[in-house]
Amino acid sequence: MRNLIIFLWKHQFFVIFIILEVLAFSMLINTYSYQRTLSFNAANDVTGDILDANNNISSYFFLKAENNKLLEENARLRDKLKSSYLNPDTAKVRRDSVYIYIPATVIRNTVNRYNNFMVLNVGKNKGIKKEMGVISDQGIAGIVVGVSDNYSIAMSLLNENAKISARIKKNNQLVNVIWNSDNYDLGKVVDIPAHFNLNEGDTIVTSGNSFIFPAGLVVGTIMAYHKSENEGLSTASLKYGTPFGQLHYVYILKNLMKKEQLQLIKEAAQ
Amino acid sequence: MKQPVVKNIFRFFLLILLQVLVLDNVPFHGYIIPYVYVLFILLLPFQTNRSLLLFLAFVTGLVIDAFGNTLGLHAAALVFMAFLRPGVLRFYFPRLEADPNDEPGIAKLGFSGFLRYAFTLILFHQLTLTFLELFSFRHFFNTLYEIGLNAVITTLVVIVLELLFAKRKKRPSRR
Questions:
Q1: I need a labelling partner for A79 at 20 to 30 A (CA). Which of A173, B21, B101, B122 fits?
Q2: In terms of CATH architecture, what is B2-174?
Q3: ipTM
Q4: Which candidate in A12, A21, A120 is best for mutational testing of the B interface (most B CBs within 10 A)?
């Protein structure tokens, strides 16, 4: 025993190196699994406050561009007002809202890692929970994976774990969207049946199957279609609607009926 | 004895803030991010206890990780770099005599000496970092190119910063 201690003491440099590396690796391996990503609360308030302070300053540089975007979005929304329609359809049943939108500011966003995350300045105090969707004014952007009191972390679509259930808008075919992992503008549409033909510019929208995003939100548009040679499933490259490079303001989607929907599925499965 | 401690603490915070607030947010071109926080470990005095060196590397890495949500990634890479530091210093400068508080900076190693020292360690850091991040050798050659490019750019930025640090140091002695 004594010899062992002397031996370890003599080689403390190497021993400490091994211990620290093992420690780091065990943290790292945990970070990589998706389940762990969902349960990790690295959204902590200290780093959040620092990033927030920084964002308070840097956000002034984008005010003009953001202002224009908001104007455009307002215009789009005004188009949907009742008064914008000639003949309001009175026969239509008014539905209760299922999703509510909570505005949030992106205080940190990476695009050049293999697994990208964004930190948002709203948290538990505003009712944010894990597995809520994050959208920008131009399309879906990510999914919340961690929350603290005042901040939350969302997995961006630019993440190897991000797999979005989507539809081809023109024919409602279900497909999946993943990240192609080498360009922050481009994703990849997979699982397209080979007999479908896609054209450049076709829109891909969310399927609404996941309770995270409502159906019909823009994911992106097709850039190029790669038809499968052997009648398998084809793929296509997709340009994301959300400009991840300059993302400052987003909305977090709260699904008011999620509990009920999940409950129903659970009961049906039994 | 006090002074270098204060200086290094100051440098630690400066580099961390520079890294997480500025450099991490500048999309240079695809995957390129200069990881300047390694300069903190590069510039610790020669006499730093080797075990302390590892601990400091671990803590620095964890702080960077906390900001990037990559718990353990930078810590693992930086501890590996700190582990290699004494060996690399001995390999390049076997007959170097240094005062206890001397730093392995440009002032002590000379420009080309510091360049070799910094680039070697940065390359190892970048190698571990990138392969750990990928956790696979899928796009081997692509990745290799990325590592090389990233290491070169990190070295460039580190040298610019070191020149700034070194300059600041000399001024009082001239007065």
A1: A173
A2: Orthogonal Bundle (1.10)
A3: 0.77
A4: A21
